[in-house]
């Protein structure tokens, strides 16, 4: 090969390199920006996921607090009514308000909480409904039947087991209590 051909090849390679350098630089820069954008998107998506999980946890915590306090308040109100019936007084009309509040909170919980928590909540809801039936029976004329009064009293006392199981399931779901 002659020197002229080598010189021509070197010149062609040099010109091609000069012409391709901006294209290569643009391609590398574009690729780098695309990777940076994808990384930023993944980071934002992860942040949204964390924020959503935190918001969901806060919603569940709020509903758990409302369910727990509502169940306790409803049970306490029925206990007060039980003693009022024994003393010949009428049940407090506020009991119905407390009952409706608890039912509303339970309805919200059905859409927010996992089954592992909803099942103990359902057990409390059923126990409260059963206690209400016992209270209505006493109120309808059985308030002076000491045995029925005592059965109702015992039922209301034992409801703490269901409420405690509900509280434990809630605490476990929130990561506060171990199994």
Instruction: State the CATH architecture of the domain at 59-179.
Output: Up-down Bundle
Radius of gyration, in Å, reads: 35 Å
Helix content: over 70%
What is the residue-averaged pLDDT? 89
**Number of helical runs?**
4
Percent strand equals under 5%
Q: What is the C-level CATH assignment of the domain at 59-179?
A: Mainly Alpha
Structural class per helix/strand content? Answer: mainly alpha
Instruction: State the total count of DSSP E strands.
Output: 0
What is the first-to-last residue Cα distance?
84 Å
Order of helices and strands: HHHH
Low-confidence stretches: none
General shape: rod-shaped
What is the CATH topology of the domain at 59-179? Answer: de novo design (two linked rop proteins)
Most strands sheet: none
Kindly summarize this structure in a few lines.
The protein is mostly helical and 179 residues long. The protein has helices at residues 3-86, 94-110, 115-142, 146-174. The protein has a domain at 59-179: Up-down Bundle (de novo design (two linked rop proteins)).
Detailed description of the structure:
With 179 residues, the chain is mainly α. It has a domain at 59-179: de novo design (two linked rop proteins) (Up-down Bundle), CATH 1.20.1440. It has 4 helices and no strands. The longest helix is centred in the N-terminal third of the chain and has 84 residues, at 3-86. The mean pLDDT is 89.
Topology:
Elements: H1 3-86, H2 94-110, H3 115-142, H4 146-174
